[in-house]
Structure formats: structure tokens, C-alpha cells
Amino acid sequence: MDATLGEIAMTLGGQLSDPTASERRVRAIRSLASAGPEDLSFFRDPKYLAAAKASKAAAIICDVAFEGAPCPLVVVEDAGLASSYLLSIERDVQSPPPPAGVHPAAVVDPTAQLGENVSVAPLAVIEAGARIGAGSRIGAHAFVGRNAILGDECTLHPGSMVLHSAVVGARCTLWPYAVIGRDGFGFLQREGKHHRVPQVGGVIVGDDVELGAWSSIDRGAIDPTIVGSGTKIDSHCHVAHNCKLGENVILVGYARMGGSAVIGNNAILAQDGAVGERRTVGDGGIVASGAKVLYEDVKPGEIVLGCPSRPALLQKRIEVLWARLPELFNDVRDLKKKLAKLAGA
Amino acid sequence: MDATLGEIAMTLGGQLSDPTASERRVRAIRSLASAGPEDLSFFRDPKYLAAAKASKAAAIICDVAFEGAPCPLVVVEDAGLASSYLLSIERDVQSPPPPAGVHPAAVVDPTAQLGENVSVAPLAVIEAGARIGAGSRIGAHAFVGRNAILGDECTLHPGSMVLHSAVVGARCTLWPYAVIGRDGFGFLQREGKHHRVPQVGGVIVGDDVELGAWSSIDRGAIDPTIVGSGTKIDSHCHVAHNCKLGENVILVGYARMGGSAVIGNNAILAQDGAVGERRTVGDGGIVASGAKVLYEDVKPGEIVLGCPSRPALLQKRIEVLWARLPELFNDVRDLKKKLAKLAGA
Amino acid sequence: MDATLGEIAMTLGGQLSDPTASERRVRAIRSLASAGPEDLSFFRDPKYLAAAKASKAAAIICDVAFEGAPCPLVVVEDAGLASSYLLSIERDVQSPPPPAGVHPAAVVDPTAQLGENVSVAPLAVIEAGARIGAGSRIGAHAFVGRNAILGDECTLHPGSMVLHSAVVGARCTLWPYAVIGRDGFGFLQREGKHHRVPQVGGVIVGDDVELGAWSSIDRGAIDPTIVGSGTKIDSHCHVAHNCKLGENVILVGYARMGGSAVIGNNAILAQDGAVGERRTVGDGGIVASGAKVLYEDVKPGEIVLGCPSRPALLQKRIEVLWARLPELFNDVRDLKKKLAKLAGA
To answer: Which pLDDT tens digit goes with each residue over A138-193?
Structure first.
């Protein structure tokens, strides 16, 4: 980034609080605490007001002008989205989009169909019959299996995989070593031995889905596994066979499901949250960090906590009482003594 | 799949309940609920009887004919194994076995020994001295290290690895990014610093073992890590250095061990089950979902639950009582008041 | 290994207890229990004294001669470091260091700068502007992104990644599928939808750091994520965006942090230990296996246990009392009955 405050205000459709500063140049976007006189910063959460006032930034992007600002302000409608936009420019400088075309060291089957402006990095593999939508980027060492379908403008980061027959929507992002379409863990037990049940149910992923590093959306056993549009999945997560995830779901790191679990729209599984086989989380339900939904479903909008999970308020109370157990055991011992004395008296 | 019911009954060694339907064609195998008039379905768990009666399938495979069937039945000895067999045919159509031979974009050391009909996909690497058994399939981006030994008919899915000197039996399957033979996490502490202890103990894996995506069987420190035949390991699991796993063990996703843990034959670690360093799980023992075996071993056939783990019945009772703690604290407060009153009276 | 006991004593700067055995040859280093008459073993933990006395090894390396030794001893200053040194020789025989130079099947951008004696294995990718320090080894399928910087003598095992712009010190080791510099999980919520916040803050990793298989050090959102020298991270771990880890920290398998967590020097997160967003672990603090630091920071030197975490002694007491809850509930029911009787009397 190398722009004047005037240019930045214009780009963001914002107002520069001190028009005389419009020619001042900035080169990077930094946090309030670390920004220096050539950096831009941003302020949107009131709890950082003191940090904003103490910032050494050249200028601060914000929603509403605040008193005691230490520098010119760029007042915009949504400081979050505005700074996100500037960060995307800085990201593209750090890591420019690859040129369209297939690198000579990629291995692309002649029957694969690539849309316009697709880029395929070195050592990527695209198998027979795969179809990749326009503008998609296939990273180094990435893998697209036989007859898999990707929508437009998808990004497969290095080492990510879409296995055979999986169907992925537009603008999806797979981080390194994410895998869509692994066979779920299905076996038949016969005389103490475990026999593989081949998984043929497929995977259907909507638009604007993210799948984090080392995370999986397994293919269904017979019917497909389904992930709705706008759902964002962090690293080390596991969506098991025949799960159904709604739209705009959030799975934070290590969140996981058993087979055939159902997660409603806008639900959140916080870090290490787990939902057992065939369990359901209603729309907008929240599984708090480390909570395990094993015995009871989560109602729409409900927040659950603990292992096994319970309604958050009850579990919070239980956790407080755990710390008072030593005292309680003492109290009961005392009561027994006193009562014995009283009864004996 | 494209076959008549008569052909399917013959292939499965079964009986078609309505011989006049033997020319009817089916094209896919689907669940009872989703099967349509060109699909085959199957029924084996009595709890799905209503679904079986309501199914729109062309025919249903089952062990025993049932009343009220909505379509012809194919009655076989074991509906589970029979449908598994048909699914494996459908899987091979979706994702056909690769042709034998080494893809020109694979990198195979000339001293590596490949058995008959081995297939090596593009961009796989096979290092010096490695030996791959007949009929094995090495996927794209897979890696077989120096002097590693694989038995016959193994499948290394894309991106899976068998590192140097590891020994793997016949018919083993590694899913994407599974790794056999990583160095265990061994350090010596000296004056606050951590010094690597090289791990040279090797890994020995039996026949018919599965290792899931991003799962590891680490090499032993000095003596080998051992995994018995028929053991199936799901994704995100960790078998640490010097663990000994018996035969037909099941590790569900995120199951993990500390170093030198011992797991008996037919034992099960459910999702997120953990067994601490040097701890033992006896034959047929079950570590329930989320249970952590930290302080006490698991006896043969025992089921444990909770963190720290306890016998399942005790832990279940404890979990029920947790929810009654608020009531218990109230009761004790009441008792104290009443007793004080009584004593004072 | 193929050396005489005399040569080994000399190499280790140790004393051979029986000089007449100096010509005896040994070929491998094995544990006390498994060593045979051509193997060397070592003894350093007094609890294995019986195993040492019963060992069939050709010779035993130890710090202090012990009575009843079954074979000649090689007495050294530090049996741990001495045997570690011998193991590193055995490891180099099993898996010899690769020759310097770039394999013809690697893809190295002409603007990348490689130091002296760097080795690049087949199918590795090194992007434009990357700089790799002297003596570093880049494994098969490994990836070094645009403008990333690696210090001298780093080892990138097969399939490990250092993404664009990340800065990594000297002598660092990345195990298979470890990733430095993935974008953290940052989104803005607007009208129920999640908008990606590009992460541009970078990653700075010190010297002598290890990052285990499928473990990540995410890049910071705006300011960098920092990992201090000497820190060792096991497999399946997660260092989130903007975390700051001190020096010589240990993270055991599945240890994880939320964003902006701070971990002091020499702290330990045991297996599956978790530290929530913005939480702090003081210098030398220990998060025990499975403990989740969610609501309170960990003081320097403190040991915490449980979920939610508490001081270890309190939590241990709570865990013991859990098992006595059935008894406690009975006691209180009894007390209520007796008191009612007494009050009624």
C-alpha cells in the first residue's frame, strides 16, 4: 500500500476529518498499538478507545469521529468492512493472485474442463472429467479428483483436495491439506472383524464455504453429506458422513460431528465443540468451547456448555458449585456430628 | 450399476421374493428414504421397518422377508455384507482402480522394488530401497520413504506417507495425509532447553489396517511401535511412539494415546477418547467418547467414561448428580438452618 | 552402527568399566529389555535398575556405575545426551541426509535465493523471492511461499509448508504437513453473514523451533504471531493468530490456543491442553492434560487442571469428591429424614 489519506478516504467513500492532511502518505495498515507515523489504523470497538487516543498512526479509520483523536480520522459507514477491504489490498501485494493458465509442471487430465481464467499451480493434479469454474485458482500440490465439480472463483490453497465426484459451489476456499470427500468411517462387524463399507453418497457443498487446514467434509455413505452456503469451517474440524450443515454455520478449530448430525443455519460450534452421532443443533444454537452434545439435542437459539452438554446457565452454576464441593462435604460431616449429638442428647 | 433384479439376486446368492420382477432394472443403491423406482435399497436394522414399508425403491435387500413390503425383496444371508458388496461396485464405477504402472510424472528411485501390477500415480515419490507389494496402489502426491516395506494390495490415497524403514502389512489403507513413521515427540531437558532424542525404533503395522486422514502412527524411540492386524483408525488420531495396539482395535476420530500406551485386541476408543502415557486398555475395553484414561488402566471388557475416566455406571451416576448439585447445596443450607433452630430451641 | 566398545567409550568421552571388553563389537542401540548380545543399551532412570541388571545387552551406557551390572558399563557424564548422540548416528544411517542441490523434479522460482549446501527434494516448490539459509533441507512435496525467509540448517520434512512472507529462524524443523503462516480464522458478521478479514500480520518464528505434523502457526491479523526460540510443538497443535509464545515452550499433541493468547517462557501445555482467546499462561506455567484455560489466566509456575481449569490441588480434590457424590446425596437424604423425625419428636 502506498496512498494518500485523500485517496484512501475517496476509495472508502469516507470523510477525512482534517482536509489539510489529504496529501499525507501511508504505507501499511497496523493495529492501534503498533501503528507508526506512516501507518493507517482503525477503530471500531469502544473498548479500545484509550488505545485509539494513544495511537501514533498517521490516521485512523472509524465509524464515528471521537474526541481526543491523536491524528486525522477517516470516517466511514462501516470501519470493519472498510479496513477489511484495505487489508485485502495489502494481502494481494504480499501474495499476488497467480496468473491464469496451467503451469507446465501441473498434471491435468485432457478430459478435465477448466473455465476461463482458471490458474493451476505447479504440481497440482486434476483428474479425468473434473470441471473447474471460471476464475478458480488451484494451488501447488492441490488435488481435484475424477468428475469432481468446482464452481467459479474457488481457491484451493496448496495441498488441499476435492476428491472424486464431490460437488463444490462458487467462491469456496480450501486451506492447506483440507479434504472434501474422504470416505466416512463405516464398517460392518462380523465375528470380531471390521469390514469396510464403501461410501458412495457424495458431498454437496454450497457457495462461499471455507474449509480450514486439515479439516474434512466426508462423503456420505449412501445419501450425500451437505454443507450450506456461507458456512465457515476452521482448522482440524471434522464433518462426518451424512451430516447436514445449514447456511452461515461457524465451526471453530477442532469442532467435530459424529455421523448424520444436523446443524441448523447460523449455528456456532466453538473451539473443540462436539456434536454426537445423529444429534441436532437448532438454528442459531451455540455449542460453547469444549462442550460435547452427546445425549440431548440443542434447541434453536440455545447455548450449551459442558461435557455432557447442558443449558449454559445450569452448567455455569454447576461449575461454580464444583469449587465449593470441599466445603459442602465438610458441612455435611459437621451436620452429621451435630445431629448425632442432638439425637443423643 | 445397471442390472436386473434377477442378476442381482444371483450375484448375491439370494432369493427374489417376486420372480416376475426379475427383469426389472436398477441403477443405484440408495437409502430407504431416498431410493426411487430405479434404485435398490437395503434393510437390516429392525428400527427402520417403517421406513422399509414406506420406501419407493424398486427392490429391497434384506435378511428376512417382512410383511407389508412395498416392492420385491432380495432375501440374502447377510444384508449388510451383500449391500456392502454392491456399494463397492458402485464405488469402483465412481472411482475406478488406476491402471498398473508408474505414471511418468512420478519420481521412483531405481533401487525401489515394485511388485506386479503396482500402480504409482503422478507426483508420488518412492525413495531408494523401498519395497511395494504386488497390486498396491500409490496415490498422487503420496510418499514412500527409504527402505520402507509395504505388503501386497495396499492403497495409499493421495498425499499419504509411509516414512523411512517403516514396515506395513498387506491390504492396508492410508487416507489422505495419513503418516506412518513420524518421529515421536521425545526430548531431553537440560538447563531449561529441550534436546531432540532421535527416534530409531521403527514401526510395524499388521495386515488390513486403516489409517485415517491426518492420523499418525509414530515410530518408536528405540523399540518399535506396533499395530496389530485388522485395526481401523479414523481421522485426526494419534498413535504415539512405542504404543502397542492389538488386533481389530477401533480408534474413532481424534482418539489418541500418550507414549507406550497398550491397547488390547478388539478394544474401542470412541471419538476423542484418550489414553495417557503407559496406560493400558484391556482386550475388548471401551473408552467412551471424550473419556480420558489418565490415572487408572481399563480392565478387559470394561467401559469407562469421563475425565478423568471412571467405570461407566459410576460416571453416568456422577453426571446425573451434577445437575442436582444446586438442589443439594440448597438442601444443606436448609438443614443447617433447621438444625441450628432445633439446637437453639 | 558397527563399532567396538572401546571406540564408543572414546567417542562419548566415557570410561569402559571392563577394559578387556574394549574390542567387543556392537551394532545397534536398544532398550534394556530388548537389547541382545550385539546391542548397546543405556540406563539413566533409577526406576529401571532391575531392568538394567537383567539386561542381555553387550554393554550399558550410564552416568554412574551400579552394582550387579550384567555386562561392561560405559560410564559417561550424561547418559541421556550420550545415548541421544548415538541414536542420531543410527538415525543418519537409517535416513541419510540428502545430498546438497536441487532435484530436477523440484520447482524453484529463479528469484528464490538458496544458501550454500541447501538440498531441495523432488516435487518441492519454492516460490519467488523466498530465501533459504545455508544447509537447509527442503523435503519432497514441501512448499516455501513467496518472500518467505528460512534461517540456516532448517529441515522441512516432506509435505511441510512455510507460506508467503513468514520468517523462520535457524535450525527449525517442520514435520510432515505442518504449516506456518496460514490465515487465522477471522470474520466480520454483517446481517447473519460472515465476511473474511484478510490476515496480513505475518509470522515470526525463532531458532530451534519444532512444529509437529498437522500443526499450525497461523499468521497474525495485522500484527505478527510470534514464537520464541527453542519452543517445541507436537502434532495436531494450533497456534492461532496473534498468539505470542515465549522461549522453550512445550506444546504436546492437540494443545491449542485461541487468538492473541500469550504463553510465557518454559511453559508447558500437556496433551489436549487449551488456552482460550487472549488468556495468558505465565513463565513456567503448566496446563495439564485436557485442561482448558477459559476464564482465568495461569500464574507463573502455576499448574492448572480440569475444564474449566483450576489450580491443580483444588481440581484434584474436586475430582476425588465427584466419586463420592452418590454417598453425599445419600447422607443428605438421611439427614433430612433424621432431622424431620427429631423435629417431629
So the answer is: 999 999 999 999 999 999 999 999 999 999 999 999 999 999 999 999 999 999 99
**Hey, what's the cell of A117?**
481464467
Residue B297 near residue B280, CB atoms below 8 Å: yes
Could you tell me if B224 lies within 8 Å of chain C, comparing CB atoms?
no
What is the tens place of the pLDDT at every residue in B120-158? 999 999 999 999 999 999 999 999 999 999 999 999 999
Window 13-72 of B, Cβ < 8 Å to A? 29-31, 33-34
Angle subtended by helix axes C312-323 and C325-344, to nearest 10: 60
> What are C137's strand-pairing partners?
C119, C155
Q: What are phi and psi of B47, to 5 degrees?
A: -70, -10
Residues A168 and A180: their CA atoms lie apart, in Å, by 9
Q: How far apart are CA A80 and CA A43, in angstroms?
A: 8
Given a cut of 90, whether residue C10 has pLDDT beyond it is: yes
Distance CA B153, CA A341 (A): 78
pLDDT exceeding 90 applies to what percent of chain B? Answer: 97
Rg (CA), chain B: 27
User: Which of C232, A160, A203 lies closest to B214 in space, CA to CA?
Assistant: A160
Query: What DSSP element (H or E) covers A312?
Result: helix A312-323
Interface of C with B in 73-132 (CB under 8 A): 78, 80-81, 84, 87-88, 90-91, 94-96, 103, 105, 121-123
ipTM: 0.94
Residues of C (274-303) whose Cβ lies below 8 Å from A: 274, 276, 292, 294
What was the pLDDT predicted at B345?
A: 65
For residue range A32-44, list pLDDT tens digits in order.
Answer: 999 999 999 999 9
Q: Which three cell numbers stand for residue B93?
A: 464405477
- The terminus-to-terminus CA distance of chain A in angstroms comes to 87
Work out the average pLDDT over C47-69. 95
Of C296, C322, C323, nearest to C309 by C-alpha is C296
Q: With an 8 Å Cβ cutoff, are C176 and B187 in contact?
A: no
In angstroms, the CA B270 to CA C248 distance is: 33
Provide the pLDDT confidence category of residue B342 given band limits of 50, 70 and 90: confident
| A90, A108 contact by CB (below 8 A) | no
C-alpha cell at B255: 482418539
pLDDT at C345: 65
Secondary structure E strands in A76-166: 101-102, 107-108, 113-114, 119-120, 125-126, 131-132, 137-138, 143-144, 149-150, 155-156, 161-162
Q: Is the pLDDT of residue C164 over 90?
A: yes
Amino acid at position B195, single letter: H
- Neighbouring-strand partners of residue C204: C167, C226
Amino acid (1-letter code) at residue C343:
A
> Contacts of residue C29 in chain B, CB cutoff 8 Å?
200, 222
For A46, other C-beta atoms within 10 Å of its C-beta total 9
DSSP assignment string, B253-290: TT-EE-TT-EE-TT-EE-TT-EE-TT-EE-TT-EE-TT
Closest alpha carbon within chain C to B142: C141
Q: Is B344 exposed, middle or buried (0-12, 13-18, 19+ CB in 10 A)?
A: exposed
Asked if A120 contacts A99 with a C-beta cutoff of 8 angstroms, the reply is no
Q: A344 falls in which pLDDT band (50, 70, 90)?
A: confident
**The length of chain B, given as a count of residues:** 345
Cβ C271 vs Cβ B249: under 8 Å: no
DSSP for B286-307? EE-TT-EE-SSPBPTT-EEETT
SS3 category, B116? coil
Cα B276 from Cα C270, distance rounded (Å): 11
